[in-house]
Design goal:
heterodimer, A: mainly alpha, 9 helices, 0% strand
Amino acid sequence: MGDLTVLIISSIFINNIILAQYLGACPFVGTSKKMETAIGMAGAVVFVLTLAGTITWVINTYFLVALEIEFLRTIAFIMIIASLVQFVEMFLKKSIPALYAGLGIFLPLITTNCAVMGVALLNVQDELTFLTAIIRSVAFAIGFGLALILFAGVRERVNLGRTPGPLKDTSIGLVTAGMLAMAFIGFQGMV
Amino acid sequence: MAKTVAQEFKKGLWDEIPPFRLVLGLCPVLAVTTTAENGLGMGLATTFVLVCSNMLVSLLRNNIPSRIRVPCFIIIIATFVILVELLMQAFAYGLFLELGIFIPLIVVNCLVLGRSEAFASKNKFVPSLADGLGMGIGFTLSLGVLGAVRESLGTGMISGVKVFGPSFEPFEFMVQAPGAFVALGLLLCVMNIIGKK
């Protein structure tokens, strides 16, 4: 049990997927201008990343490794993620319309979110067992959501102030993200 | 087509230089630019995928049904990514280990998919080739510059050659994660200042 707690805490805070591993930086910058969109994106990522982490692990272990066709991993994973996103979209539209309306346009965007693909590849690279792979996927997803929502909050405040011309928008956003990343380095002493 | 091939090529180098003007494909930009060499290597790998996929998408653009075009583009891109992965494993093993999971992640680099969707699927073969090459070179240059800035400030040298005097204290912050964000933000600011004049 203790190991799992350490795994969860280190995946959320210390190895935060955006601020320490640099994965998923595009949606991090792109959808953080407003709190609402940030929350929508965070929700969609938690949902898809958990599913994708689980399914890619199963496919990799029982299909790619069993048949010794690991060189097809990239193409297999991206197809799994793309079809998963499509499937989740259709399923939500039919059975949970409220959630579908909430996540809206963020679902299709997740296909090209490197956080999802990155976690799937990291799970394979670190040779995790099934249970730890799922738990780490969830923890990474929570870390993504946390960083995104925190960043959106800070960014909304920054935009209220007067920024020097050339630094406006993305530029100051990236510098702010750097400060946030620095704060997250402080968590390194925790475990 | 009002624009000439040369113009399509040139826009990728300054007007629409990828990680700065179009804020796309940020993950590799932040992750692998700890040294200039890694940055350039990643840039070249991405350029290869970008040029090849742009060419193939533009050749097949009339045969791909528009409703399923994105999955088709992704398969084309993934094929070239696997190709690059195997080539690097064979000929540049050190760089392959250094870049790690960021090579397969070229497949989800929004820059590559973005150019297929926004340009190659609507244009003829030669302009698409020029667009891919221009964007790729622009991307490589940006990664190289960012890598050089971070490496020189963070370790005091560029590929083993000391660039500052002996009293220079390496600014380790720059080669860690926060430095990546700050350096990219400040470079963007510098580009905005130059672009205004």
